[in-house]
Amino acid sequence: MSSIPKIVILGAGYGGILTAQRLQKELNYNEADVTLVNRHDYHYITTHLHMPAAGTDTVEHARVPISKLIDEFKIDLVKSSVKEIRLQDRKIILEDGTLSYDYLIIGLGGEPETFGIPGMLDHAMTIRSINSVRMIREHIEYQFAMYKNDNKRNRIRFVVGGAGFSGVEFVAELADRIPQLCKEFDVNPKNVHIYNVEAAPSALPGFDPELVEHAMNVLKKKGVTFKIGVPIKQCLPDGVIVGEGEKLDAATVVWTGGIRGNALLEQAGLEVMRGRVKVDEFLRAPGHEHVYVIGDNSLVFNNEGRPYPPTAQIAMQQGVNCAKNVVAAIRKKQPQPFVFTSKGTVASLGKGEAIAVVGGKKYKGWKAAQLKKLVDLRYLFIIGGIPLVLKKGRFFG
Amino acid sequence: MSSIPKIVILGAGYGGILTAQRLQKELNYNEADVTLVNRHDYHYITTHLHMPAAGTDTVEHARVPISKLIDEFKIDLVKSSVKEIRLQDRKIILEDGTLSYDYLIIGLGGEPETFGIPGMLDHAMTIRSINSVRMIREHIEYQFAMYKNDNKRNRIRFVVGGAGFSGVEFVAELADRIPQLCKEFDVNPKNVHIYNVEAAPSALPGFDPELVEHAMNVLKKKGVTFKIGVPIKQCLPDGVIVGEGEKLDAATVVWTGGIRGNALLEQAGLEVMRGRVKVDEFLRAPGHEHVYVIGDNSLVFNNEGRPYPPTAQIAMQQGVNCAKNVVAAIRKKQPQPFVFTSKGTVASLGKGEAIAVVGGKKYKGWKAAQLKKLVDLRYLFIIGGIPLVLKKGRFFG
C-alpha cells in the first residue's frame, strides 16, 4: 500500500454516490485519494425512471450531474465504463485506461434477470438507465405514429412483464400517458390494451394484501388488464406467449421482472448467486477484505435468512456504512456491521395515487401519493441539499 | 340527372376545399346537393408539413377541422376513403358506402413518384399527410434514443432524397431540429450527418440560380451535405446507394423526389401520364364533361407546352375555376377556361431564412422569410378568414 491509500468507487448510483459523499465528509486532507468511476457524467434516480419511461415526466427530473453532488477538489471523477475488475492485481480495466486501488467499492448497476425466458433479452426493453427509458418513451410514441399508417393492432398493445414494484409503477404511468397519446395521434383509446403479466400468484409479492387489492383496482380503472399467476413463456418481436400458449399481441414489451448482479463480478472470480456476492457483515466480498460490494450486486440476508430485495433504500444505507468501514480500515479502527433499517415502502400508482406502508401503518390514495413525493424529496435533500430539492423536485402534479 | 344535381368532391386538399367553399358561396338554395368526401375530418396545409415532419412545429399548426371551413348546412361531409371511381355508373365506391353524382370533382392527393428506384417505396418515408409526418418526427426521435443504446452511426445519419422545394424546405427544418435533439439525447452534434441527394444537375431545378446558390450556402452552414447531380440507385433499410455505388449510411431516408397522380384515376379508366389526367381547358377529364380533375392529379400545360408543377397555388386557382365551371354547367352557361397566374414562389430555409421570387423580384434572408409567413397567413385567411389566421397562424419564430 502506498503512503496515501487509493480508494476507487465503481458506479455512481445510490450506493456509490452515498459512499463518495460520506468519504468526502469523513476523510481528512491527504488521508486518501478517492476516485469515482461512472459510465455517464450524471447520477440518475432509478426510482423515478418509470415516469420518463412512460413519458409522464422529463428525464431531467431523474438525473443530476455528478459534479453537483461531489466536490471535485476532493474526489476525482472518471467518466468511463468498467471492462474488467482484476482483484489479484488490484486494478480496474476501463474502456480507456486503468486504475489501481487499495480499497475498492463496487457499486455498479445490476442487469435484467430474465430467468432464461426465450426472446426476452432480444425483444423486451428494460427500465434501467436514462438511455433505456428515453428509448422506451420514443418506442411507444413511434408505435402510435406507425399505427396511424399501418393500422396494426399490436402497435397500441403493451405488455409489462412483472407486477413487482417497478412493473406496477411503470404500468400506472403508462396508463396515465395513454389518453394523452391517443389525443396527440388521433387514436381511439378503446383500441389500446395494456397487459401486466406476473408469474407469481399475486401482484406486488410480499406487500400487504389489502393494499395490493387497492392497487389493482386503481390500475384496472385506468385500463390495465392483469394476468396474475401467468408466466411469460416466450417473448417475440410482436408480443408474448403466456400461460398455456395464449398470445398477447404487443409491439412494446417492457420487462421489469427481475434484476441480477453485474456480470463483471462473476468474471472477476467472485462467488455469486444470480450475479450477486454474499457480502460479510461489513459489506466486504468474502476473501477480499479491501473489496466492498454494495447495491444491486450485494446479497444481504435478514434475520429469517431471506435476502433483502435490491432497493434504493438498502443501497443508500450500505453506502453510508461502507464509507465508515473504509475510513475505519484506513485508520486501523474496528469496522461496524451493516444493519438494514426499513423506513417503509411506497409504490406510486400514477397521478395522485399510491400505496404505502410506513412505520407499520398502511396508506393509500392521496396521502400515500404525498408520501411518495416526500420520499423523493428526502432523497434529493440527502444527496444535494435544498438547492437540488428546488431544482429537481416535483412538488405538484 | 335528378331534379337537384348532385355534386361530389373527392378530397379536401387545397383544390377540394376551395371548390367546396366557392360552390357554397355561389350556389343558390336547393340549386345542387354538394358532398365533400375526405379520408380525415381535417384539412391539412401541405406546404407546412415539412415543419411538423422535422419536429420544429406541431401538427396542429398544419391542420384545420373541415367543419370549421365549410358550412355543414350547405355541404355534406363524408369521412371515408375512396376505393373506386365508377365513371360509367357515375358512382363512387367508398370504404363504407357508395355515392352517386352528376358532377364529380376529383381533388384526391397524389402519390409519391419513386421512378422505380429499388427499395424506395419500402424503406423511405414521405411527407404527405399528418399521419406520415408524425411518423417521420417519431422515427427521427426514436433513432436518437436507439443511438444512445446501440451506438450505430446510421441512427444519426439522415438522407433526404430530392432537393426540390419539398426536399430543401424539409432539410432546412431538420438541420434546425438537430441541435435540439442532440441536447435532449446527449448526442455530439459533430456525429450527425444530413445528406440532401438530387439527381438533377442543380438543387431547386428551375429556380433562379443566384437564389439557389444562396439557399445552398445557408443550408451548408446549418450542416447539410449536398450531393447534387447524384442519383439514388437503391434504397436499403439502413441507407442508400448513390452515384457509382457509394453507400450513404442512414436509418432515416425521406423521399421528396416526386409526386404522381392517384392510382384511382388510372384504375377508373382515365388516360394518365404519371398518374395524372391531361384536363381540357375547363379542367375536365377528356371524354367526361361532368368530371373535373384538379390539384395533384391534373396535368395543365403552360404556353411553352411544359406542365406546371403540382403546387398549392395552382390547386387553389383550379378549385376556384372548377367551382365556377360547375355552377355554369348547372345553369347551362358558358364555362371559363382555366388560366394559371403565378403569384411568385417562396421556399423557406428554416428559422429566419428563405428565398423568394415575387413579381419578378428576388428576395432572400429575413425579408423572404417574412414573405413565406405572409403566404401562409394569406392562405389561412382565404380558407378561414381572420379567426383561422389568429388560431393557426405562426407570426413569430
Automatic annotation (TrEMBL), chains A, B:
The keyword Oxidoreductase applies. The keyword Nuclease does not apply. Residues 6-319 form the FAD/NAD(P)-binding domain. Its cofactor is FAD. SUPFAM superfamilies: FAD/NAD(P)-binding domain. Gene3D superfamilies: 3.50.50.100. Keywords: FAD, Flavoprotein, Oxidoreductase. It comes from the Bacteria. Coiled coil: none annotated. Pfam families: Pyr_redox_2. GO terms for biological process: aerobic electron transport chain. GO terms for molecular function: NAD(P)H dehydrogenase (quinone) activity. Belongs to the NADH dehydrogenase family. This is NADH dehydrogenase. It comes from Paenibacillus xylanivorans.
